[in-house]
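Dear all,

This email documents one entry for the complex benchmark we are building for the journal club exercise. For each entry we list the sequence lines for every component of the assembly. Then comes the predicted three-dimensional structure of the complex as a token string, followed by one or two observations. Please use this as the template for your own entries, and keep the labels exactly as they appear.
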Amino acid sequence: MSENTIKALVIAEHDNDSLSIDTLRTIQAATTLPNVEITLLIMGHQCQSVAEAAAKISPLSSIKVADHDTFEHILAESASELVAEVGTEYSHILAPATTFGKNILPRVAALLDVGQLSDVIELESEDTFIRPIYAGNAIAKVKSNDNKKLMTIRTSAFDSVEVGQDSTTSITPLTNTYQNQASEFVSVEKTKSERPELPAARVVVSGGRGLGSKENFELVEKLADKLNGAIGASRAAVDAGYVSNDLQVGQTGKIVAPELYIAVGISGAIQHLAGMKESKVIVAINSDPEAPIFQIADYGLVGDLFEIMPELVEAI
Amino acid sequence: MKILVAIKRVIDPYVKIRVKSDGSGVETNNVKMAMNPFCEIAVEEAIRLKESGIAEEVIVASLGETSCQEQLRSALALGADRAIHVDTPSPEPLVVAKTLKALMEKEQTGIVLLGKQSIDTDNNQVAQMLSALTNSPLATFASKVSVEGDKVLVTREIDGGLETLRLELPAIISTDLRLNEPRYASLPNIMKAKRKPLEVLKPSDLGITVSASLEILQVLPPKERQAGELVSNVAELVDKLKNEAKVI
């Protein structure tokens, strides 16, 4: 090993069964560091299959597995203690910028008394990174002067690493365990929806105030279902009570970057645009030809959405 | 119990920000400022805990220049009891967390409520860091908070659903958008807020040294999107999506 090899640790997100796509993308982000040697840290309970799958990822040089019931529900306290301890050997620690990674990594940073970079979209060099600020309305190039660089990765900015056929990466079991003294897992309730999740969806159909009522939101749902997409909403639609606020797309809601984003009856306030302007193709349907949404839409259709939407569902 | 709420002054979320042409940052002169929306939700939750008899006192704190006292006054108008301004130009999350740790110890607070992230730096770090520094239990992205004796039950918004944790007090909680609907301050309450106590401290009063580990080399505007085309009917739209954009 040459002296200037970068030792990077990637924190794996998984469901005790398989690695998340966000993890595969975070490993890809780590590979963009110069002369890097990547270790994957898997914390979980009865997560042998996760480790076996990870062993087939060739950019990894080693895998560490902490398999213990402490890590069954990855609580921030015990998980960050483990990462901080394992992390002492590494100069770079990366986690996906999901609710999993965001919950743990800043805690690790404080335990190690270093700063942390959030939502990194490019690793320019071993100490210089690019990340969006102001909900993507500005892009900052940041140099970290810490001895350890901790960062969460905006996974939509990276491809996945490929999972090969052969298990070639060595797996080291860890025996460190930490008990959560003051916090306790109670329950988890997974959203059971036929629709894909908003941040991961390939297609998002969003409705705004123009829909006029909660009942009319069905027009958005029908189109989303036809396209196997997720539904979203503007803050105006949420405030008017058309949908619950976990569907809000925007600076204070979810930030999405699907392949196709269809904005229905949404004027395109800055707050909303911040949450969706990285989408690959944007379609706007609005009765007001002056609506700002048309300035960023690839395809715009001016007209009455109550006529257009049923016709569109029919035509697709 | 006392509740400490950390709030931040940020550019109003409805303002279109301008990146300075020299790449040094974002223009904040003569720009409308506001309380960070996630912090408003934290303030609201603290006030509700007081109204339900669980909290005796709600203390709001902000780190920043003198101007952040405006946002502290807003929080007082919403129902907070007193405010602490820690006078320092915008520090990094770790310094904020260290300062809040000192305030937590000074005030002996039972719950610290923070927004999950500020909409300027978008870090989403302070609550987590504070939890690590104080060795207090943590619940981020809260959509429901209920205090049961000396414990607090928090439902968290996680990717793909909701998770519920039970934390011992003192606990650190960061708020998600779904937690509540913040109220507006009434004019009489705004007037009353002017007479509520606002203490000004220097970081050094709390034994904090402000340092920075991150250096912003350059701030650039994102790539502008080009306006596309208007289509005349549904058939043309579907045709474009299928054959030109190839997304359906």
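Observations: The mean pLDDT of chain B is 96. Chain B has six helices and 13 strands.
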